[in-house]
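Backbones bend. Our protein:
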Amino acid sequence: MYFKKIYMHGFKSFAEPVTIDFNDGITCIVGPNGSGKSNISDAIRWVLGEQSPKALRGGKMDEVIFAGTASRKSRGMAEVTLVIDNSENILPIDYNEVAITRRMYRSGESEYLINNNHCRLKDIREMIMDTGIGVDGYSIIGQGKIADIVSNKPESRREIFEEAAGIVMYRTKKAEVERKLSSSNANLDRVNDIIAEIEGRIDGLRRDSEKATEYLALRERYQELEINITLKNIETLELKAEYLKDDILEASSEIEELREEKSEIDRRADENRQRAESLEVLSSETSSRLLAAVEEISTLMNRSEVNREKLSAIDDNMTRLSEELVLLQEKLEKETCDVDKLMDERKKMIAELERLDETLLRTVSCYEERTEALSKAAGEIDKRKNSIYELSSRAQSKRAEAGSLKNLQENLTERRQRLENEYETEESEKKAAELALRTAEEEKQSLIKEEEELRRALQLLTEEYNGGLARERQLSKELEELRIMIGQLSGRKKTIEEMEANYEGYHHAVRYIMKSKLRSIEGVVAELMQVPQGYEIAVETALGAAMQNIVCLDDKSAQMAIELLKENRAGRLTFLPIASVKSAVRRDDRFAGADGFRGYGSDCIKFDEKYRNIFEYLLGRTIIVDTMEHAVQLSRSAGGGLRFVTLEGEVINTGGAITGGRYKNSTANLLTRKAEITKLENEIYEKTKIKDRSVSELTSQRTFLETAQRRIAEAEEEAKKLARAIVLCEGKLTASEIALSDAEAAEKRRHEELSRIEAEARKSDEMTAALLLEAEEAEAQIAVVTEETSLSMAAYEEEKSKLDEISEEIVKARMAVNICGEQKNSIDTALARAKETTGEIACDIEKKIKERELLLMQKDEITSGYTNVDELIAEKTAAKEKLEQYAAEIAEERTAVTAAARESIAEKGAIDERLSSLQDSKYNLEIKMAKNETQLDHFKEKLWEEFEVSYIQAAEFKKKDFAVNTAVREVREIKGRIKELGEVHVGAIQEYEQVSERYAFLTAQRNDILEASRSLSEMISEMDKTIKLRFKESFDGVVANFEQIFAELFGGGHAELRLEDESNPLESGIEIIAQPPGKKLQNINLMSGGEKTMTAIALMFAVLKTKPTPFCILDEVEAALDDANIDRFANYLKKFEGIQFALVTHQRATMEHADVLYGVTMPEQGISKLISLRIGDQLELRKMQEVL
């Protein structure tokens, strides 16, 4: 894995798009101060997810967007894309190349993309985690940050070591698991609270549930017994009804002869009607055949004309195709000629290309021979330079060590003076410790007082929470009662709807006819009208038994239905044929403005217009009045033939009789039953709205409880913080006491330190003299080697100029080869295009020939069928004349049949009048039958009133061997037991089931949470073991590498890394101990700036050697080093073969070791530009440096 390139647009000073290609080895980025070099390092850090503006050398994050100059407008967006080669699949993503993009807009919005797919910052961090290239890793060392590695606190150095150890991912996962564990514990506390609450309710609910269960069992047994008693009574009445039916059949025999006569007339009428219908069909068929014959004749005549037009079009197309074939042949000949010319040119170009290739090979061979000789000379020069560098480094190192020893002497002198002056400060420190002791005591008392106030506030919050919890329980109870009530109303509505669907409350004959699904039956009178609210009782009273009359289309439909009733002995019914029933409206305008007048019955209801005669026949002589008082007043002034019905159902008949009263059950009235369905729907809707409001309030209350619970938790947490603060304060007290005892021991240590300083000063003087002598010897050797190197460089420069001339010849030869190759490619392209065009023309010619052959075939087909059309026209004309004669004969016969039908209708009218007078004799029998049916309806209504079951549903409870007397006795006992039970809460059964289910669910949830907490704790333990093992292995590797690299970079000396607390490696700080050559082992903070930088570089190289990162950018890390140390630094960089290094630098010595140079300039104020150079090109490194 390595970095391929970075693209920047609008990032800081890079206003224009800039692309930097990263290569193997060392890439140096150079330029004057303020040109924008370090912005490249910031761009890499930013695109990898840096969130701190301070780390990007800014105050706010939007400062990374180009802010504009005096001559340029600011950008609205900054974008950086980093392209990484992932061919080795080190990154956990299935792409060989990964492009990470980050954009930021002036509005503050940010975007992250991976391979142009939107993603989260978390996705990018997880992808690069533990690779060493993250913003918190060791691959990006920003400007001025190298010294921070050794200057920071020991515990803050852990980030670099943890990134190298690859445990950042484990630490992140551990933190996430710890958050989950904390959340699980919080959930466990809430679940335990709820379980405790339920345990306090469940016992009482169980007792209420058992009591309600016994009550329901008794009520079910009571219902079963009462239903069977009622069914026995219904069976007795049905048996009586059968006897009445037999009497009515005997009375009907007296009018049978008249009906037979009427049937004969009906038969003849049916025959005439059938004949008329068949003649109608024949007439229709003849007309259709006649029309078809006319259409066929017209079609044949049109077809002849169309064939003539098709032949003309075919001739035109044949002419067009012939002309197109001639043009295509000419075009094919021209393209063939062009192909031949291109082939000749291609042969010539191939010969020229071979000649140019041969010339280029000779020149390149000469260049390689001279380059090899020049490389050998350069190697010798490099050896001499290295020797000079080593001698110079040795001399500078010795002098630097001598200077360090001098600085040490000065430090010792200062330390001695400081120790002598410490006596005065010790007294002040002692007084300060006493003051701190008093202050800590006062702070402790203040914290205790604050803790008491917080406890009182916590108690108030707890009381509010308990009040809200009580309200939540009350709302839950009310909501459950609403659910039960809605369920009861829905059950009631469903039962009434079932009664409507099953025609409960209607006579058996009505149910039988409606379930027979006869086509000509329109429906029951009660179904075919809509009654306004408040008029149901009045209309149903006015109609009476007519409510159950059935409306049909005509007399024949009525006859068919009656025959069906007779065949199945299903009862009697009144039918109202739409075609026969006449309106019976009698209106008196005097009533229009009278008090209490609501309208005529037929005007007070809504119905389909085709039923107008039916409802005017039934209600046309009925007037609806509001009250009984007004009805009496109006009846006195009314003429005969009118009835008055009040809204309460009282009736004043024509003769003055008054009828009134009310049914016990609201479902006894058929129209009221429909109104009750609507009323129930409204009640259900209202209760549902109330339930929704209760649910909303319950949700709000639960939200309040959660908020209160959270506030209580926050208050408890604050209390814990105060408790910890008190503990800390007590710690301060202890610390102040210890400080007093430390002050007494400080004087003893001061005397011991002064003795040690005197001994180190004497030893330092001796070492300084020896180091200066070694430095003078090294400088003498440098003068000799420098003279030899100058002579070699002159010869090298002369040979290099000749090599440059050969290089220019190679470039010219390559350009000639490229131009010739491009010309050959152009000819090949044109030749392929010409061949392709020739093939297309040949295909077009073949298609045109096939099209012409197809036209010839179509012409032959049309010509062969053209002669038969005239003969068909003559045949069809003769057939048409015969059909016209047949249609005239049918019309004459239809006239005769119509006359016979009119005679049959007249005879039938006479017989209907005779039958009407005979049917009055049967009236008394039918009245008895009606009374019997009324009693039956009463018992069926009793089933619904008391038990809310229909007669059909009651049949399911029927028992074969049922003893009525025993049942009556058992009913009395059940009533006594129900009375003993007292008040029963039926909803307790369901509530107990719900609470039990919730209790079981919460108990299982608590066990799951406990199991999850145990698993999370195990995961944390396993992660701690893994982190500890990996950190220890990595740390040991870094320690070994650091000691070896330190000695190599310093030319000797000793360095080591130590854990401050080896018993706790996961949290312990890391201390650096270094001893440069010739110096005593000392703390890192006592070293010079250059020594600190070299020590930090040694530590960085040790980490890179332990866990190499694919890319490392160093921003002016060697700024504090001299040339000798820079040379050591750069030489060691080259030992890292698998790492790309990008160095932002001002040092010429560093540039000399670069493989690629990028120069950053600012030709326009505030706008950075980029210049690149690969070492080995024609330009010299020295010229590049002069340009920059």
